[in-house]
Each structure stands twice: as C-alpha cells, then as structure tokens.
Amino acid sequence: MEEAGGGGGEVRLCGAAMAVGVGSFHDPVEIQGLAHYLEHMLFMGSHRYPEENAYDAFLSQHGGYSNAMTECEYTVYHFEVPPASFTGALDIFAQFFIDPLMRPEASARELEAIESEFNLSRSSDSTRWTQLMCHTCHASHPYARFAWGNLASLRDAPQAAGLDINAEMRRFYSQHYRAPNMKLVLLGMEDLDTLEDILVRAFAGVRGSSSLPPSLPPSLPPSPLQGLPPPMDESNALGWLFRIVPIRDLHELHLTWPLPSLLSQYRSKPWEYLGHLLGHEGPGSILAALKARGEATAIVAGVSHEGYDSSTGLALFTLTVTLTEAGVRAWEEIVGVVYAYLGAIRRAGWQRWVYEELAAIARMQYTYQEEVETGELVEHLAVGLLPMYGLERTEFLEAPFLLRDWRPEWLEAILVALSDPTRCRVDVASSRFGRAGAWEAGPSAQVPEKAGEGEAGVIEGIPVETEPRFGVHFTRERLAPPLLQGWKDIFNRAATGDALPGNYPALFLPQPNPFIATDLTVKALPLPSEGSNPPSPSSLPPSAPPTHAPESLLPPAVLCLHPGSPFDLTSETLAEALHRLHTASPGLVPALARIRASLPPASHSSYPTLLPPPSPPRPFHALHLWHLQDHTFRTPRSCIYLKFATPHAYASARQEVMTELFVRLVKESLNEVTYLASVAELHYGLKATELGLELTFHGLSDKLLRLVDLVLRRLLVREGGSEGGKEDPLFPSSCAGLSSSPQAVRFAAQKEALLRVYANGNMKPSRHARNLRLGVLKEKMWQCEELEREARSLTLEAVAAFAPRLLEALQVDGLYQGNCDRADAQALESLLLSLLQLAGTRPLSPAAYPSNRIAVLPPGHNLLLAAESVNAGERNSALEAYWQLGPDTIERRVVVQMLEKLMEEPLYDTLRTKEQLGYSVSCGLRMTNGILGLAVKIQSERYEPEHLHARLEAFLQSFHASMSTLPPSVYARQLVALAQNKLQRDASLNEEAGRYWAEIVDRRFQFDVGPLEARQLLSVSLAQVLALFEESVGVNAEKARHAAVYVTGRACRARRGVREGREKESFARSGKATEGEGGKEAVEGTQTPTQAPAETPSSDGSVVKPQKKPGSLLLSAKVRRLAQISERVGGPMAVDAPSGGGHGREGGTEPEFYPNLT
C-alpha cells in the first residue's frame, strides 16, 4: 500500500481510494458479472460495522460522498468527507477489505439491484454496442464475458451449474482482495507520518499485508489476458460489416482496428498523434469534407481509456462518425474518405511539429490544470499505481499528460494496421434499420433497409441475429473483397499522390494552431490603498450594488458549536488559516457578534463588483459587465460569461426551434476555427435559454479575447445582403440556388440533427418525467413532440428572416473573471459596444425583458400526470414526485436543504437497498426560475409508478415518525455536516466564476452564498424542518402543492399482463389556478388509445389536444391510496401537451403564476 499526503497544505475534503487489481475479465465463465456483484456487496456491512447502511449513513450524516466502479481489469472504491470525519469514515471503509459480511439475505436482495442496474443500462446505445462487440468476440476470450451481470448470469447460471453463489463470491474475494493486489491512496490534512499511522491502524487487518518480506516482489494473480490470442480476427469480426438496430434515433459509423497493448507507451502516446489528425475538424479534415457533402455532423478518433479499449492484452483504435441520413446511404464512400485521409498522412510523412504542438498543449494542461474533486483525484491516483500501467513513481502524476518520447516507429506500426481494410471492423448503427423497441414487439426476419441502397431496400438472405444479454438486433456479413480492395487502392493512391476519383474531396493535414498560448504570465494584482475595499467582480452601470463586502457577508470563522459534541463549524479564510470559536452556551448558539473578532485583520473575501461607468456615458445603457481579477488560484486562465436577453427566443414553440437552429448554424459556421481553439485549451459555449442567448468562454487567457471577438462578430453581425459584398456564412444573400448552397447543406444537416434531439428527448423515462413536470410548471416549456412538429416545417428562409428580430434589442449582462485586469475588462466592454453598434442592436427596455414565470400549483391537491414511455421496448418506469415550496428566500432555502439532508440517506436505504424498488432512488431540492421545490425520483424495472408512489407515501409516513423522535445530537451532526459543505472553498476558477455568474443571472448578488447559508443554518431548528414537512410535504399535509409524474415502461406494462386497449384518462396540464386563486383548474378529457384524437398522437403515449370530457383530470380530493388512483383512472394515463407552453385556457380562465423572480 502507498499513501499520498499533503504536508502542511489544505484540502477542501479529505478522501481515500482503494484500487484492486481484479475486474470483469476475471469473472468465472459460469458466474459472469461476479466482480461487479462483489463490488456491490462490500457496501452491505462488515463484522465491525454490521448495519447494511453503516457506511452510507456515516458519510451522509457527516457531509461525505462515496462511489465505486468495476472496470475490466480493476475495481476502485473511493470516498470523500470533511477532515473531522476522515478517520471514522476510513475505519468503516477499511473493513470492506478486511472482514465484509456478505450475508446471503443481503446478497439475494442486492441481486435485484444488479438486475435493475442492468436493465437501466439496456437503454444506452453505447453500452449495447459495447456488449455486441463482446458478443461477437471469440467466446472463450475474456472480452466475451458479460461484465454487468444480471439474475440470469448470477443466479440462474450458477444454480444450473450446481454452484453456491455466496461461496463462490467469498472464494473470489479471498483470491483477489489481498494486499499485494491493492493500491490505496489517502488524501488528508495531516503530514505524511501521521497519515501513515492512520493507514496502519485502519488497514493492518488486510490479508497478506505482512505475509511477504519487503525484499520480495508482491505475488499477483496472473492477468486473464496473458498469452491469449486477440479476441477478434478475420474469422469473426475483422473485414466484417455489422448493421445494428438502435434504441434512439441515431446514425453512427464505427471503424475499429485492434492493436497490441499500448499501455507501456505512456510517454510517447502514439495514438494521440493519429487520433488528433483523423479526428481533426479544421480545413482539409475528414469531417470538413463530409460536412460539405451533408453526410456527417461529428467525428471522434483514438484510443479511449476505457477497459475494453485499453487493456493489458490489446488496444482498440476507434473512429466514430455521426452521420446524417445521407451519410448512412453513403457509408461505403465515407469509409473510403477515411482511407484517403490515411493515405494523406502516409504521403505527408511523420510531422514532428504536430507532435511537439500536442506536447506543448499537454504541458500547459498539466502545469495549469485546475483542481479536481477529492474523490476523483484519489481514484485517479490509486488506479495509476496499479502494476498494469507500469508507471514510474516519479511520473505517475503527470503520466496522463506526457508526450515527451517521439517514436515514429510506433506511429508507423499503427498506420500499417489502420491502412489495411481487412484488419478493420465496420459497424453501422442506424434508426433507418428500425428501432429496438419496435423490434422487441416483433422483429421481421430481415433488416428492413440496407444502407447504401434505396429507401425501401432490404438485405436478402441475411438473417437477423439477437445478442442474448441486451437483446441487440443486428446482422453481420463479410465485406466483399472488391470493396476491401477498393478502399486499399484509395489509400495507395492518396499515399502516392495519384488522382482520386472525382467524388473524393481534397484532404490535407492541418496547419499550425494559431490559438496556442504564448504568454502565460499571471498578471500582478493591484496594490490595495489604505482603507480600500476588498477586491471583487466589477460591472459598469451607474446603479451598481456596493463594491465592498458588507460586514454581514464576511466569511464566518465559526458559526456554532454544540456543547458536549465534537462537532464545531469552521470556515477557511483567504489567509488559509483555520479559526475556531468555542462557547459554553447551551444548544446551537449564534456567534455573529464574535465572528469579525475571530478573523485576522487582513482577512477578507473577493466579490464581484461593477466597474464605474465610463466617461463619456456609454450609448448602450443595457450593458452590465462585471469584473474580478483572480486573487485565489493565480493561473493564466480566465472565464467570460455573457447573457443576451431577448423576448423573442422562447416566445413560442416555433420561435424556440428557430432560436435553436440559429444557434446551431452559428456554431457550425465557426466550427473549423473554434475547434482549433478548443485543442489549444480555449473553449466556448453558446446556447439558447428562456431569457435569450448565453455564451461562455474559458481557458488560457492569452488569446481568449480573440476567440470572443470571433464568436461575437459571427453571432451579431450579418454580412452580405442586397448591397452585395461578402456572402453571409449563415444565410445566402438570395434564394437563387438555395437548395444547393453551402448554407442550405449545413441547414439541412443541423435541422436533421435537431429533429433527432427532439425525437430522443424523452427516451429515458426519468428525463421524460422531468420534462413533463417542467411542462406543468414553466410558462415557456414545450414538450419534444411540439418542438419536433415545428422543426419539420421550418425552412432556411424562415430562420434567416427570424435572426435579425431575435437580436434587434438586447440587454447584455457579463462577467469577466480570472487572469484579467481592469484594462482587459474595458477592452471587452469596448468590443461588445462596437459590435452591438455595428449590428444596429438597440438596448432592451425593462418592460420588454423576457418573462420566465412559474405556475402556482393548487394547495391541498395532488396533481397527477402520466404517460407511457417513448420506447416501446422500455422495461423501466419512472416516478417523479414534486412539492412546490414557494419563492426562494435564504431562510426558506436552508430549511428545505436541511429536510433534503435528513431525508436522502433513509430514502435510499429504505426504498433502494431494503425494498429494492429500483437501482435509481434519490431526492433533491429543485430551484425552478426562483421557485423552491423538493423532488423524489425513482426509476424501476420491477414496478410500475403506482406501486412506487404507494411505497414512497409509506416511507414519508415512517420518515415523519423517525424525524419526530430524532435525537438532538443526530440533528446537530447533520446540520454541522451541511454547513461544513457550504463553507468549502471553490475548487477551481471555473467553479468560483460559475457560482458568481449564477448570482448575477438570478439577480440575487449573494456572492458569498455558502457562508450566508451556513450562518442562516444557525437558526434552523428541527421543529422548523418538521413544520415544513408537515405543512407542505407529508402525506397528511393540508397545504401541499404536489405533483406526481408517472412514466410507465411499455414493456414493463406488457410484462405485468395489463390488458391492451384499456381506456386512458388524459391528465392535461392546462390550467394552474384553483378556486379562490383566480379560477378553476382546467381539465382535458379522456380518450381511448385507439380513438383518433383531434391531432396526431405523440410518440410518448400522450395525446395532443384530445377531445374534452368533463370531470377527469385533477382529483379534487387528495389522493391517499394508490389503489384508489388505479381504480379511479382505470389504467395507464396520458398527458396532454398543448401548444403555447402547455398552459391552456378553459372558459377564459387564466392560470396563476408566480411573478418573475430572476
């Protein structure tokens, strides 16, 4: 075992990780998934801590977090926790590896969790493709093992083989969970000697820890891949074509080449060079050529770090192209383009400058990397210590970034493999072949369509196969020798410079990257004058908030102390000192009067402030720019956030779609340049929101403003037009030749991609439930079906006409933070003003500011909404229960947070661990446009939402009883843990700037919200939390504003034997107000699933604009028993999703909304 510690330095959280050199490749053939099963069981108690939830409960009560992962050749466990609880958590954690219980009754229950996790993963197309790869490998190879495990592999198969699964699990644990096969990392505030003492005390009982003299090498189990031939060759995969039926609406081409293991080449990383060139997106690249033809929208290439792709036995070099429908038909030519580019690489020779450019970027990434979360850090370090990676101890921290060993011979070896089409596996996954859900209902004998042939072509004589674990439908066939030879000829011709066929584009290597930073200077901080205010972000309007931090915002050193307990509440100051205030007063006592005295005189916090207005006054008064020079992290990085508020972005479903398409066209037109910036650690984002457009820029500060200028100029300033001149890169200057213009080709590809986003938007039941809930709440929220209908009818001309209106009047808010001084902020302001003036943009008047109101749910009612899953083969169902708790205030917020803190662990332990309702069970605070709420989410493969809701109500009753009798010491421990988390320092500049930006966008300006909330927690008693629960959340809450959303998996319902064709109640979401609040709840009527509705049925089982029928929707009496619900509604229910944001009108009744709060 080895430990890593911080001598004298501070950490935000302490943590530990244990990596064990055993994974799914080690599974016995008869018990596949055993390594994953064992990982689950180690959480289920030990002889020293026998309670099944002892570990989770301890971490929850002390503000910690844990996770674990089973990979192909290792399993890793980690946790993070505040320093005061580190040794306690570590002792429980150590027992995983010393004396776990693995009780048979717990094992049987946890098998259900494994089954639920497996079924949750069945809807992931990437996971299904990985499993198909495994299934088509040689059956005797470890790659062909079923890593996930399920009831069939972990219960039925062992029983059939006469094996005792619990005995086999213990044997597996004894064989692999030994000290020589483990690597442990501790990260704490103590010095290394103290950490070593802590380690020895906790882990001395690990088997094998003292059985070998230090002079002998550790005895490790042999690698399961040792001495084995490759899992795929010409007999089963290479030179073969696999056509795959996906779950989602997608089109992807995967090319896979097996290579020898590359783990030993971590200093040179030859795959990075080739992956960089093949996955490049600039001029002359594969993607640029395919985009110009309207055949692709994205590409990625290289060797990933996942266990299947990078193992001790081999590496898989994969190139994936996201195709358009035209690309699916032309997949053979697209593969030819890939081989033509490989030939261009051969012809250009090995360019050392390309490698050195990548190496320079990697060095900057390593030198100026931002801090990561404690759990992520210790996990990474523990895995890096495993012998399989062979890392030198002096290099293992920087090993992921190393590019210091120029090895052209390795590049040559990889290129030789990639340039041989007979060594390539080709997979085409496309919804043109059908959708998996429909196939599970009864697939035909053949794939319905052959890529590359006509729209209605079929593949005759090729049987459809089904992968047995995930049910993936696919066909396979050997690629025809003439096709393989044709690709090889294309490579050879490109490599020698001979002319390619006329339909092949010009391909060439990229030019040097102009965005690579050359000035990495960290700018000096301004010297504070005597009596000056503390530094903080700054903006430019005259009506700026205070530019200093008032005393009420000073970070508290100690907030409270519970006498007689070891828990006191502390905060780290900028002076990186820890201060404690002790008091003998009884109870949780405020320390506000003595907080300031506990701080050193020079201690302060940095807050955003507005820059003073320029002289003369700016012509664009609706520009508010905040600035803060970094005083904390001191790296050459900066962040810029911009919000362009416009009332036209989400004014209707059609305008939302046009805004989304406009954003996509802007990003697409910039991609060849912004891709270069992203390679050089300069990143940007552009997205549409309810309030308008939001842009983010972050990275090395040297050339960040250059990127900002480039993006803003394309976004705001239209070129071309009736006066002629340069053609607009977004829209053609005339309609002549529109269908074949470059803009039209890009528009068609982006429209198709957006249609797929909408088609897939509700594919996951949990996301579907969330979208339905937000559709009820948000004034401007349209369901995917509405957006998809609008998108289908949109044209390039319509979006081109809309774009000027979108940007004609704006309010601009911004934050510039990081390695930037006042002059940089003023340069950004000048740039914004000049571009807004050039674009002819007017300041947005306050009256025209976009609305984003939230509907008021009726008190004392349970609003029930339901729909069937979009995917006909979906086995999982989802419940989302939501309680609306009113406008956000800091006083109300911390009470809700405390309720969440008390509820989260018992909810998980009861409903997930003990009752095994499903793999995914969680609760959390929801902040929806300034309105507080609490949500519980459950996703289950075993039960329908009605049962999940019933069990949730039963839990809420038992939770109320347990909370009513909660000992004060337990409550104090939970409160302190929550407050300690709020007092943790930001891990990175991005995290800090993102937090400040949220305060600016929401108009709260609580720049030190963590300490403010921690201070407010001083006044939160258990009685207050109980009162909130009893009034607004509990089963008997008289004033609860509650909504429950059911999404039932269609395959789940079919398995339950529910009769088809039962009448559905339509639970519309039209009206929001109740009598006494401005109107009566508006109700839409019922409709059987076989009736033709007024409009087309949506793909998720809901009905658009159904016929009205009185008395069906909102149950006027509170719903208490789910059996009554089931009886009353008579089966599955459908959700109406009318246009206009879902807020319909019934007899002139207006829904009630909270006022705009952001």
Task: Report what the structure shows.
The protein is α+β, with helices and mostly antiparallel strands. Among the domains are: 14-203, Metalloenzyme, LuxS/M16 peptidase-like (Cytochrome Bc1 Complex, Chain A, domain 1, 2-Layer Sandwich); 240-367 and 385-496, Metalloenzyme, LuxS/M16 peptidase-like (Cytochrome Bc1 Complex, Chain A, domain 1, 2-Layer Sandwich), CATH 3.30.830.10; 631-798, Metalloenzyme, LuxS/M16 peptidase-like (Cytochrome Bc1 Complex, Chain A, domain 1), CATH 3.30.830.10. Helix content is 35%, strand content 15%. It has 33 helices and 27 strands. Strands 7-8-6-9-5-11-10 form a seven-stranded mixed beta sheet. Strands 14, 15, 16, 17, 18, 19 and 20 form a seven-stranded mixed beta sheet that branches. Strand 17 and strand 18 form a beta hairpin. The longest helix is centred in the middle third of the chain and has 27 residues, at 653-679. It is globular, with a radius of gyration of 30 Å. It starts with 13 loop residues before the first strand and ends in a 23-residue tail after the last strand.
Helix-strand layout with pairing:
Layout (H helix, E strand, L loop, with lengths): L13 E7 L13 H8 L12 H8 L3 E6 L4 E7 L4 H9 L9 H18 L3 H11 L15 H10 L4 H12 L5 E6 L4 H12 L36 E5 L6 E10 L9 H9 L7 H7 L3 E7 L11 E10 L1 H5 L1 H18 L3 H16 L6 H11 L23 H11 L6 E6 L5 H5 L24 E2 L6 E6 L2 H16 L61 E4 L6 E3 L21 H7 L10 E2 L12 E7 L7 E9 L7 H27 L2 E8 L2 E9 L3 H13 L25 H19 L4 H13 L6 H10 L2 H11 L2 E10 L3 H18 L2 E2 L17 E8 L8 E11 L2 H25 L5 E9 L2 E10 L4 H20 L3 H15 L6 H13 L7 H9 L4 H11 L8 E8 L1 H6 L9 E3 L54 H8 L3 E3 L23
Helix pairs in contact: 1-4, 2-3, 2-26, 9-15, 12-17, 19-20, 19-21, 19-23, 19-24, 20-25, 21-23, 26-27, 26-28, 26-30, 26-31, 27-33, 28-30
